[in-house]
Design a protein that fits this description.
With about 600 residues, the chain is an alpha/beta fold. Helices cover about 25% and strands about 15% of the residues. The chain has an 8-stranded parallel beta sheet with strand order 11-10-9-5-2-1-15-14. The protein has a 5-stranded antiparallel beta sheet with strand order 16-17-18-20-19. A 3-stranded antiparallel beta sheet has the order 6-8-7, with no helix packed on it.
């Protein structure tokens, strides 16, 4: 932490007046920025804070309410900033604290809020806390991380000597040998991302102090990365951690699945309630706390997001983005069918109907582009599928998230060889899978489809070289289709994907049924049609979409128990094809979506 961080901080500048409803985020739309890939102002090929500042008008024009920044803290960038070495400084790659203050002020001036990504399950191995912790076994910060001796009867550093058989999310073992102190440290992710020991109250208080520092500086809240990892399956006072089950599937990891032992652990609710009390209690309304929670069920979510429990405002769950993963995990590709997607999303709608809140997303920095995954990136269907997917997503109950470029219909990119990838997860998987004997072509096919770098190619601002992302050489190549898909070609085009997003966001702001209405799924088993009804205080919204390339798909509303005659008089409030006058009984073309409104009947 540099000296500037110790300067007095003024009163928060965020929009937190006393009249702000405490659940304001229910009617909000969040826009996620991946700073490395958004806009580069200095020609070094990496996006930065001044680049974001230069495009705030784009976000204001889109109509979003919250800007979520992926990590911009000091970091060695082994995991593109999700390995933090200083929580209270900005990495020079992105700019300075003063520039972050300028960005926050610019967002607030435009009536929006700023949420920072925060990773407190682990730090970077370059963080001062870990450097102290690994310096000796008797260092005061030794117990700030998970250190364990070798397995009894084994020699430290040799295969099989790890304290448990847990695997890492990023391939390989979940423990790394430290020859200096002759013990292993735990890392659920990369070896450069050691897990903090939340059992230690000093760790928790250090985290809460840091979070308060950011709120005092004007930040409006946090999106907390893998926050449900912080409570491990350990009995207080016991040094032991259990071994995990090893998959017997051919080609599966030889390491144990650590998920049951690190997700939603025995003290997670205690820790989150303590965080809320220590960080958020007593502050004016207008703040938000979001938890990213892989492996979380509806029942878990009801507890995490129940306002009475004072833990989190909403969570990110992963169920629907794991539907195309087979028994061997993420890279084991299986077909995704629309009925399965509806069953999953519908169950979450029903499960959080009376308690809790949904985060609505199809893509983010950790997922491939939603148009290529859930829609169609074929030139004949890309625009319509981008609009249809957005319509369905934004009309669910919950807070929608727009990942940068979604509003343009950006797609997966082109990866010729493994050398085209930058992401540590993809590179580690390719190496370990090929070493284990898997077909390199099949491994590459999975990486091309689901690799995280698909979402991390530069934002496509115009058709010029490098899409006006940078004047230099971008850290990862721009998608070749930027000459066709870019902001300059869409922001003033009334029938563009961008304009459709604007209409969707405006509808959320103007129509209470979008935010507060009940949710009722129609035709759950239909292979092409996604249809549902939202209802609130006498207003009903009927959303019908053909999420396929099949032509002339007609929703059979009568079979779904709807009175077609009543809906015949409904107003068409939004459609994929701007200017259409279609009624509810008109068949849907490929990737067509419509929203009909009925009031008082």
């Amino acid at each position: 932490m540099n000296a500037e961080n110790d300067r007095p901080v003024s009163t928060p500048t965020g929009v937190t007046d006393a009249e702000t409803p405490r659940d304001w985020w229910k009617s909000a739309v969040v826009y996620q920025i991946y700073p490395r890939s958004f806009a580069d102002s200095d020609g070094d090929g990496v996006g930065d804070l001044p680049g974001i500042i230069g495009h705030l008008d784009h976000l204001q024009r889109l109509g979003v309410d919250v800007v979520w920044l992926s990590p911009i803290y000091r970091s060695p960038m082994d995991d593109n900033g999700y390995d933090i070495s200083d929580y209270q400084d900005v990495d020079p790659l992105f700019g300075t604290l003063e520039q972050l203050d300028e960005l926050v002020a610019g967002v607030h001036e435009r009536g929006m809020k700023v949420v920072m990504d925060l990773v407190v399950n682990h730090t970077s191995s370059a963080h001062a806390w870990f450097e102290e912790s690994r310096s000796s076994r008797d260092n005061p910060k030794r117990d700030w991380y998970w250190w364990r001796p070798p397995r009894p009867g084994h020699v430290g550093g040799e295969p099989g000597a790890e304290p448990t058989n847990w695997g890492s999310v990023f391939s390989g073992p979940g423990w790394t040998w430290d020859p200096g102190t002759e013990e292993y440290y735990l890392h659920i992710f990369a070896p450069s991302q050691p897990d903090l020991n939340w059992e230690n109250p000093e760790v928790r208080q250090a985290v809460y102090t840091m979070m308060r520092w950011w709120l005092d500086r004007g930040i409006d809240g946090f999106r907390m990365d893998v926050i449900n990892h912080i409570s491990k399956n350990v009995v207080p006072g016991s040094p032991g951690l259990p071994d995990a089950e090893v998959s017997t599937e051919p080609g599966a990891s030889p390491y144990g699945n650590q998920s049951p032992h690190v997700l939603n652990g025995p003290r997670i609710h205690e820790f989150l309630r303590e965080m809320h009390r220590e960080v958020f209690e007593g502050r004016p309304p207008g703040l938000i706390n979001i938890g990213e929670m892989p492996g979380t069920t509806v029942d878990h979510a009801r507890l995490y997001t129940d306002p009475a429990r004072r833990e989190l405002d909403m969570i990110f769950q992963f169920e629907h983005v794991d539907l195309d993963s087979g028994p061997k995990g993420k890279w084991d590709l299986v077909p995704l069918t629309l009925p399965r997607l509806k069953e999953s999303l519908g169950r979450w709608q029903d499960g959080l109907a009376d308690v809790g809140w949904n985060s609505l997303y199809l893509g983010n920095h950790d997922q491939p582009r939603s148009v290529s995954r859930f829609g169609s990136d074929h030139p004949d269907h890309r625009v319509r599928s981008a609009k249809a997917l957005a319509t369905v997503l934004h009309l669910h109950r919950g807070t929608p998230y727009v990942y940068q470029g979604d509003e343009l219909g950006m797609t997966n990119t082109v990866f010729e060889t493994v050398d085209d990838f930058r992401d540590i997860e993809s590179l580690n998987h390719y190496r370990s899978a090929v070493e284990a004997g898997e077909d390199p072509d099949e491994v590459m096919a999975a990486l091309r489809y689901k690799g995280r770098d698909n979402a991390r190619t530069p934002m496509q601002w115009d058709a010029s070289p490098h899409a006006d992302f940078t004047d230099g050489e971008p850290w990862i190549p721009v998608n070749p289709n930027h000459t066709e898909i870019n902001a300059a070609a869409q922001v003033d085009e009334p029938d563009s994907v961008f304009s459709h997003y604007r209409r969707l966001i405006a509808l959320r702001h103007e129509e209470p049924a979008v935010v507060h209405g009940s949710f009722r799924m129609l035709l759950p088993d239909h292979e092409q049609i996604y249809a549902f009804v939202r209802e609130h205080e006498g207003t009903r919204l009927l959303v019908v979409a053909n999420l396929s390339s099949e032509d002339q798909a007609k929703p059979d509303l009568a079979a779904a128990g709807e009175d077609v005659g009543v809906w015949a008089g409904a107003e068409l409030v939004l459609a994929v094809d701007a200017g259409t006058a279609a009624t509810v009984d008109v068949p849907l073309g490929p990737w067509e979506a419509r929203v009909h409104r009925l009031v008082g009947r």
